[in-house]
Design goal:
This protein has 112 residues and is of the alpha+beta class. It has a single domain, classed as Alpha-Beta Complex (Ribosomal Protein L22, Chain A), CATH 3.90.470. The protein is built from 3 helices and 3 strands.
Length: 112
């Protein structure tokens, strides 16, 4: 059985989030949380929070033991982009795109 958790409109850009997600994909939940705990990226807390949420759903709703859970799929989709502008010389402006992302985690237990 697969359990899904999603966090929407995080302040993390999708490109930066994918570095972390590639690191924990395919690992057990416990191993993924340990790896994220010692990762110096500030976005690691948000990713760890989503993994914990999916694991808690699996444990409480579907009575699956956390020790048997693995991160089957984890991906970041692009969310809305805030558009800002920076003033430049001669009355011009340069666009600034503040990107955000939706992070989806799917955990599954080992089939016995």
């Amino acid at each position: 059985m697969e359990v899904k958790a999603v966090v929407r409109d995080t302040g993390i850009t999708p490109r930066k989030a994918r570095f972390l997600l590639d690191m924990v994909r395919g690992k057990s939940v416990a191993e993924a949380l340990i790896m994220l705990e010692f990762t110096p990226s500030p976005s690691a807390k948000t990713v760890a929070k989503v993994i914990k949420s999916a694991a808690a759903d699996a444990e409480n709703v579907f009575q699956m033991p956390i020790e048997d859970l693995t991160v089957v799929k984890i991906f970041a989709d692009e969310a809305r982009t805030m558009k800002r502008f920076r003033s430049r010389s001669r009355g011009r402006v340069s666009p600034i795109l503040k990107r955000s992302s939706h992070i989806t985690v799917i955990v599954a237990g080992q089939e016995s």
